[in-house]
Design goal:
Layout: H1 2-33, H2 41-73, H3 82-94, H4 99-105, H5 110-122, E1 126-131, E2 134-142, H6 144-165, H7 170-189, H8 191-202, H9 206-209, H10 218-225
Antiparallel strand pairs: 1-2
Helix pairs in contact: 3-5, 4-5
Amino acid sequence: MQKVDVLRKQVLGGFEKGARSVTSDIADVVTLAGPTPEVSADEQSRDSEVDQAAEIADAMVSLIHTYQNLKSRLANSLDPELASLFLLVRLVKGGPKRAKELADAMCADQSTVSRQVAGLVKSGLIERQADPDDGRASILVPTELGIDRVRGHFVNRGQGVEPIIADWPDADRGQFLRLLRQYNTTLELKRDEVINSMARGHSLPQAVRGPHTTLHSPAHDRTERSN
């Protein structure tokens, strides 16, 4: 029995010695590494803002994908002029513009805008008038038919949204509308900054895309898909 007790003490003593050795090694590593840097309140706030921005972006991407899926299911019944109708909405809401100004405002390729403008003119939804500031240039002006078309478009869009917010309290609807308008306004003001940030995030590394790969610009497709 005494031999067992002695053996047990030896084993436990070995464990304790090993534990003290490991603890000492960890202490040495911590000492060599130096103190853990403290995160300032500003840095914590910045990290929180970045996390929230990422969550907002994820929610918006999910929303866009959902609407794209809905539109794809209605592809056969969609108005063929729906893509160019967004140009008409811009003119009705923002007033007459030159074609180049319209393309710049929409961050779209001018050739795409010109093609869609031609279709709207042919349909009698907009017309070209002499620019009062420069008789050599022309501006795009929505016709009465075009204005009526936009009114109907707004009603149709509202009918698509109404089931989603039907059970929302009035205060939630108002706040949602206010925040969406604020977001859209800020997006317009910081458009170039957003484009540059998206370009950096979506570009392939040079080693992957090769020296002659042309990066695709999202601006061209935006006009084609928006409504």
